[in-house]
Amino acid sequence: MPSAAPSTMVEQETGAKAGPEPLRTLADYRRVAKGGVAFGVRYAVLRPGRAAVGETVQITEWGPSEL
User: Fold this and answer.
1) Is residue 8 part of a domain?
2) Per-residue pLDDT tens digits for 14-48
3) Fewer Cβ in 10 A, N or C end of the chain?
4) Model's pTM, two decimal places?
5) Is 1 a residue whose pLDDT tops 50?
């Protein structure tokens, strides 16, 4: 899993750099073995097609944790 991008430290309304949060707090318990801080999700497409807002997505398998 890629580590968190610097965009998490940008004030979304102004675009100004907002400081070390939320990465500072997340780093306390979401540190990745290879370095960096991980949060979020990763999915794989098994069958190409279209999905619409509001449609149900079924998770059929979990991969190993990368933390």
Assistant:
1) yes
2) 888 877 877 788 778 887 777 777 777 777 888 88
3) C
4) 0.37
5) no
Give the pLDDT confidence of 45-57 residue by residue, as tens digits. Answer: 888 888 899 999 8
Q: Using H for helix, E for strand and C for coil, what is the string for the chain?
A: CCCCCHHHHECCCCCCECCCCCHHHHHCCCECCCCCECCCCCCCCCCCCCCCCCCCCCCCCCCCCCC
Please state the domain count of the chain: 1
Asked if residue 15 lies in contact with residue 26, where contact means CB atoms within 8 angstroms, the answer is no
Range of 16's domain? 1-47
Q: Which residues contact 51 (CB under 8 A, 6 or more apart)?
A: 57
> Residue 16: inside a domain, yes or no?
yes
Let me know if residue 62 belongs to a domain. no
